[in-house]
Design a protein that fits this description.
By secondary structure, the chain is mainly alpha-helical. Among the domains are: about 80 residues, no CATH class; about 70 residues, no CATH class. It contains eight helices and no strands. Helix 1 runs parallel beside helix 2.
Length: about 240
Amino acid sequence: MTTLANMTAANLAIIHNRFAARPVTKFESKPVAISRTMAVLADRGISLDEALGRAPAAAPIVPAAKRAPITGPAGGPSPATLGARAAKADDAERAAEAKAAAWEGLPAKPAKKPTKATEAADRRAAEKIAKGAKMFQANKALMEEKAAKAAKPTRRPYGDKPTITDACILPNPPDFTANTHKPYRKKLDALTALVAARDIAGLEAFAINPTSTSPKALIRYRDRAISAIRFQNNEVA
């Protein structure tokens, strides 16, 4: 004889859905299926024989056409399905609240005591951070120094290139204070004396061999001085 105990969960779901207001697709387990099916039959006052059709029903069985549909309009969930989902969500929320309340009563976990390995790792990390900050500051200072040098106009050792205005003004002697110009300082003194005397013939006869930057600076100084003296004397070169 067929009983609830020897029926499958799928068959129990069929019987359950015939009389339940909220049909289900399947049960979590067979004991749940038996419990839910027995509750539905007891609520409707229907025995198992009446549910299986082995005996006349004491109460009218709702036809399938009048039961709540599984799907709603346009293929969406039916009101019964939505109600079941809402009930399930409420149960989950109550379970979560109960679990949270249980956790609130527990003492907090003590902080882990640092070990030698963790202390060494923290120390290495701090050293790396300090080293990186030091390198950053050094690179920043170097970049600022390079930017300052780039912004500062460079000055040639024998003066800038002459302009139209410089052609009528006696030039200043080149700066020979550096040790690289030491061998040519006497020639610079002699050349400066000729410029001060405005001796064009002596300046033109002053021989200079352009072998390096020092004699080239002397040549530039001599030529600019000759041009300036001739301009001031209203002479044509």
